Structures are given as C-alpha cells and as structure tokens.
Amino acid sequence: MWNLFRAEWTKTYKRPANIGLLLITLAIILITFVAQTGIALYNGKEDTGWTAAQFAMMFPNGFLFPSIILSAIGSMLAVVFMGNSIGSEYSRDTWKVLLPRRARRSDFIIVKIAICLLFMICLIIISLIFGQLMGLIGTAILGGTLFDFDSFSLGTLLKSLIPVLLQLVVFSSITLLVTMAGRSTIMGIVFGIVGNTIFNLAMSFSTLAAKILPNAHISNLEANWLYTGEEQTMMFEGVDRVFGTHISLSTSLMVVAAYIFGSIMLGILLFQRRDMAGQ
Questions:
Q1: pTM of the model
Q2: What angle do CA 36, 160, 5 make, to 5 degrees?
Q3: Do residues 72 and 127 lie in contact, with contact meaning Cβ atoms separated by under 8 Å?
Q4: How far is 259 from 156, CA to CA, in rounded Å?
Q5: Residue 225 — φ and ψ, nearest 5°?
Q6: Most buried residue, 82, 103, 186, 256, by most Cβ within 10 Å?
Q7: Residues contacting 97, CB < 8 A, separation 6+
Q8: DSSP letters of 171-212?
C-alpha cells in the first residue's frame, strides 16, 4: 500500500493539471489582494476603505480572503482533481498494467481518495500562507500595523475550514463514482461542476430537494459548528427556510456521511466488477 501511495503522489505532483489548479487558486488570491490594496491607494488615506483594507489584510485577518475563495471554488478544484486522477487511468489504459500486480483492487481507490485529500489539504495550507503573506505586503504598503497576535486563534481558523473540507470530500466522492461509471475524465468533471450548480438551484426551489441533497446539510453543519449567539440564530433561520423545517445536526451528519461513504463504496464495488476499459 505504501509503495502504491508513493507512486500515486509522484504522479500527482508531476501532473500539469494539478499544478494548474494550484496556480489558478494563488492567482485569484493575488488578484484579490492587489485589487484591495489598489482601491485603498486610489481612494486615499482619508477614505474609510483605507483603514478597512489595513485591518482586513493584517495578521491574522489576511487568512479570511483565502478561506472565502476556497469556500467558493474548493469543490470545483476537488472535482477537477478527482476526475482527472481517475479518468486518466482509463484514458491511458494504465489499469491494465497496474491491476495484475495487486491482490486487492480497492487499494487503488483508497489511495486515490487519500491522495486527493492530501493534495487539497496542501493546497489549502499553501493558499492560506500565500494569502496572509500578500496581506502583510498590502498592509506594509498602506502603512498599517502588521500583526495582532492576540486575536489569532488556530482553533477558530481550523473550524472555519471544516465546511470547505466537507465540500471537497463530498463532491470529490461523487466525482469518483461518476468518473468510474462513465470511464471518462470529462464526464466526471462536468457532472461534478454542473451537478453542484444544479444542487444549489434545486434546493432553492424545493424543500424536498434541500433535504435530500448535501449542500444545505453542509450549511446546517456550518451553522452548528462555526457560529454562536445572534449570528448562529440568523444562520439557523436561513437554513430552516431552505429546509422548510428544522433539521438536527445528527441528521445532516448522516446525510453528508451517506453521500461520502455511499459514493466511495459504490465506486469500489463498481471497480471490483468493471475495472478496465473495454472489459
């Protein structure tokens, strides 16, 4: 298993598409901070935006923008990664070479999932560090205070990333299943991205869809875990409107877990029976 893991990781960091995902993410973060700094400089020190920009980019507030960006595009990044990771094995017929060497075919899927999680965690860490560095540079240009260590909480930062990780895991698992069923990188990626958009639209029009699909349940978990007091009350009201009723934390956990483990188990079962292109 370890040798398989190392081999897969080597393929992962050498694959141009994965490098592209990281560079695109960093480019979006860079543009965000450059735009914020530029707008503040254009408006001048007398404008309230100057102080707001200083505050937003200083440590540890500079972590906020990367986390917001990752929350918006993280699921798409995971979909593209997983679709390309699984689909490339079918398009190049590498399963036919690799499978005879392994007794358990499920090892391949387990390693693919583990590598996806590792890559996305590395991408998140790099994005956060890069974003905060850009924030410090922006704050230095504006002449503000660079650090406020008293307001930094590692636990709070990690908690804010939980919904991002949930989105990554849920939609990468679904993409894994679809890619294996269709044996196509394009099908997996298109379904993952379009499916996420359709899920969001469906739950806004139908309370039944909201109860079945994972998106609203992830929002419910976020409301339970990340907010307190009045903010949590407001989040609960918004989530309850989407569901049409109150949904408990345990119910949302079960729904999200069902999508993750259900997709993975179905993918493994499908792979056991129909593993190689043309067979």
A1: 0.85
A2: 105
A3: no
A4: 27
A5: -95, -30
A6: 82
A7: none
A8: HHHHHHHHHHHHT-HHHHHHHHHHHHHHHHHHHHH-HHHHHH
Q: Please, are residues 37 and 141 in contact by the beta-carbon 8 Å criterion?
A: yes
Strand-pairing partners, residue 59, are 147
Contact 219, 242 (CB under 8 A): yes
Half-sphere exposure of 150 (CA within 13 A, CB side): 0
Residue 168's CB is within 10 A of a number of other CB atoms, namely: 27
**Residue 235 CB: number of other CB atoms within 10 A?**
17
CB 84 within 8 A of CB 190: no
Question: For residue 166, which amino acid is it?
Answer: L
Q: Is the pLDDT of residue 150 over 90?
A: no
What's the rounded Cα separation, in Å, for the pair 154 and 216? 26
Q: Is the pLDDT of residue 278 over 80?
A: no
DSSP state of 166: H
Q: Count CB neighbours of 39 within 10 A.
A: 13
What angle, rounded to 10 degrees, do the helices at 229-243 and 214-226 form? 160
Each residue of 209-239: pLDDT tens digit?
999 999 899 989 988 888 888 888 898 999 9
Phi, psi of 206 (to 5 degrees): -140, 125
CA distance 109 to 86: 9
